[in-house]
Amino acid sequence: MTRRLLVISDVHSNMEALEAVLSDAQDLGPFDMKLCAGDLVGYGPNPNEVVQRVFEEGFIGVLGNHDRAVRGGDYAGFNVQAALAVQYNQRVLSEQNLLRLKSLSNVPYLDPECVFAMVHGSFDGASEPSKDKKRYEDEYILGLEDFPGPLLRALDVKLGIIGHTHQPTLAYRLTFLMPIPVEGDTSSVGRSIHTLDMETSPRAIVNLGSVGQPRDGDPRAAYGIVTLEQGQISLHFRRVPYDFATTQKRIREADLPESLATRLSRGR
After folding, report:
1. Per DSSP, what are the bridge partners of residue 235?
2. Which of 45, 115, 135, 183 is positioned for an S-S bond with 254, CB 3.0–4.6 A?
3. Rounded to whole angstroms, how far apart are CA atoms 111 and 117?
4. Fold for domain 3-266?
5. Which residues are CB-contacts of 21 (< 8 A; sequence separation ≥ 6)?
6. Of 95 and 184, which is predicted with more confidence?
7. What are the boundaries of each domain within the chain?
8. Strands of the sheet with 33-36, listed across from one edge
9. How far apart are CA 231 and CA 242, in angstroms?
10. What stretch of H or E contains 128?
């Protein structure tokens, strides 16, 4: 049976980018599942609108490090700009949307059919000594040396879906691509499709990129579609232009750090 998954990550309170992605995805549906690999909030000016929309759309989500910071106030290790944005998001977030953030799981999501698993950072979560827990939302997968093959094998899944780095990424057959080049300039929709033969290479990691704060030099919102078939996985990376000038205006109106606005037009 073929299944199609809509995958987003790292929206970061950027409503304009989220709306552009959902509008683009609507033309490519329907989807059997909608997934969010963490960080609905932080950095941007519209946490309420983003959280409400994602939950109303029926996305299955996991906890991101900024989600954790906003819902619980733990932002140790965040830079000044990120910490100020967390504080702003906390001030404006409604009680209902705070409860929605608190419902996000801090452990990897496992596909009921055991084809994929999803986490924000890494499947090898760093320990938190004070609580003796794993924090899967903090670790980065930045190269083949971080590839969690044994952990994916232990979970008995073929594909690991991640976020956190804000860069479209594919690790497959001892190859690590980050970022993924796509067709089209920044004024148009871009795409890149990769087909994986899971019979000959049974494990892969994919990051479909950041909706709300891309960091690969491409300011377009990033998301993707994963198609699961018998023995084969198709990864459809999408890049969508959006009205980042409006997001920048709202960031400035919220008196958030200027760097959080300027970086959106540079994709950094």
Report:
1. 194, 226
2. 45
3. 6
4. Purple Acid Phosphatase; chain A, domain 2 (3.60.21)
5. 8, 211, 221, 223, 238, 240, 242
6. 95
7. 3-266
8. 60-61, 33-36, 3-8, 221-229, 232-240, 190-197
9. 35
10. strand 126-128
* Residue 75 pLDDT: 81
The pLDDT of residue 201: 80
C-alpha to C-alpha distance for 247 and 212, rounded to whole angstroms: 10
134 CB-near residues (< 8 Å, 6+ apart): 107, 125, 126, 127, 128
69 DSSP 8-state letter: H
Query: What's at 243, amino acid-wise?
Result: D
Q: CA 268 to CA 266: how far, in whole Å?
A: 5
Asked if residues 206 and 199 have their Cβ atoms less than 8 Å apart, the reply is no
Q: Give per-residue pLDDT as tens, 140-169.
A: 999 999 998 889 998 999 999 999 999 999
All residues at 6 or more sequence positions from 129 whose CB lies less than 8 Å from its CB, including other chains: none
For residues 262 and 268, give the distance between their C-alpha atoms in angstroms, rounded to a whole number. 9
Single-letter amino acid code for the residue at 72: G
Helix or strand or coil: residue 62?
strand
Among 188, 141, 145, 179, residue whose Cα is nearest residue 160: 141
- Residue 51, burial from CB neighbour count under 10 angstroms (0-12, 13-18, 19+): buried
Give the residue from 168, 234, 227, 149 showing the smallest Cα distance to 197: 234
Residue 252 half-sphere exposure toward CB, CA atoms < 13 A: 11
Rounded to whole angstroms, the Cα distance separating 125 from 188 reads 37
Cis check: omega of the bond before 181, within 30 degrees of 0: no
**Are 135 and 91 within 8 A, CB to CB?**
no
Distance from C-alpha of 69 to C-alpha of 29, rounded to nearest angstrom: 33
- Strands 3-8, 33-36: parallel, antiparallel or unpaired by DSSP? parallel
Decide if 230 contacts 10 (C-beta within 8 A): no
